[in-house]
Amino acid sequence: MNNRNEIHNALVAWYKVVKRDLPWRKTQDPYKIWISEVMLQQTLVETVKGYYTRFLETFPTVYDLAGADDELLMKHWEGLGYYSRARNLKRAAIMLVEEFNGEMPDDLKTIRKLPGIGPYTAGAILSIAYDKPVAAVDGNVIRVYSRLFKIEGEVDQKEVKTTIDEIANLMAHEEDPSSYNQSLMELGATVCIPKNPRCLTCPVQSYCQAFEAGVQNDLPKKTPKKPKKEVDLYAMVVKKDDAFLILKRSEQGLLSGLWSLPSAEVSGDEKETVVPVDNCRHMLSDEIGIDVSYVRELGIATHVFTHIRWSIKVLEFNWVAGALPDYPETKWIRKDEIETYAFPTAYKKALRSGSLL
Ligand code: SF4
């Protein structure tokens, strides 16, 4: 690997000078590193800071997490998205307590057996908490290596990803893997950014093959994305006296296990044929067992997931008859009780546009 030592030295020296003061950089505790790395997946550093601190105040050890109340755990994850991450954290914590005496394993093969710990998180924990020379390849690192070594294939294709993994393994730093891996993450987050990388301030510019060829803005290449599925979501505010109805989503699928307003989804050709208010009434009658009367439209919102875009229409109904079922789990709550329940961001938007938040 050309310039391997020079790249190591330049990045580690640079990182030690410029590294941002982040709460998870003040520790080598594997538990805390693990929590931070899982939170940082798909989520911005500035957002994670507050969540990380609050999470560790409530769940300071793996034992606290293993015994966490599910509702409280979800409340601490509310707004971070990708909620399966929180459920996997608890499953892994239980496994750590039951099978590993509460200790995070320090080898790649064993740590990968824990739910939710993929190659990146494993590499990050092993290198940062245990100083093991293991690569940690996330989107930032893929971008940096694809530019440094001018890899021109589409990085989401398996062979190209394998090439980058091989480079990352060859580049793994034996003496200071923690600083080196974090320097790559830092470079990707602050200098070698997706658009208009700041090459003039880059510590490895003189080794960068993309910069030399003037193609840094064209890399990494990705397969064009499929358009997102457009879904109309009718979110129902069903009122009874001073309360309204909330429903816990099923344990499978999008936003599983979180609280929401009862909802009906309409997509594709159905958009032409379905009468929204009738559809909502049928949903409430067939799935929850209550009869309602329609009042009015309260507001609209949108929410975008990785593959789906929701156009949310919030409709108000009044309860007329029927008792709540055992399943799905439903509750009548007052406006001032909303904060007790973990709602995903999409439903917080719906609650806001219905003037409930
Ligand atoms: Fe990225 Fe530019 Fe540095 Fe190359 S020179 S690694 S493209 S910031």
What are the segments in which pLDDT stays under 50 over at least 5 consecutive residues? none
Protein structure class: alpha+beta
User: Strand portion, in percent?
Assistant: 15-25%
Bound molecules: iron/sulfur cluster
Distance N to C terminus: 56 Å
Q: Biggest β-sheet, characterized?
A: 7 strands, mixed
Shape: globular
Helix-strand pattern, N to C? HHHHHHHHHHHHEEEEHHEEEH
Quaternary organisation: single chain
Mean pLDDT across the residues is 95
How many helix segments?
Answer: 15
- Helix proportion: 40-55%
What is Rg?
24 Å
Beta strand count: 7
Can you characterise this structure?
A hairpin with a 2-residue loop joins strand 1 (229-240) and strand 2. Strands 1, 2, 3, 4, 5, 6 and 7 form a seven-stranded mixed beta sheet that branches. The chain is α+β, with helices and mostly antiparallel strands and 357 residues long. The protein starts with a helix and ends with a helix. The chain is globular. The longest helix is centred in the first third of the chain and has 16 residues, at 84-99. It has helices at 4-18, 30-40, 45-58, 62-66, 70-77, 84-99, 108-111, 119-130, 139-148, 158-171, 177-190, 209-213, 270-273, 276-288, 345-353; strands spanning 229-240, 243-248, 259-260, 263-267, 291-304, 308-321, 330-334. The protein is built from 15 helices and seven strands. The relative contact order is 0.10. The protein binds iron/sulfur cluster. The site of iron/sulfur cluster has 15 residues, from helix 9 and helix 12.
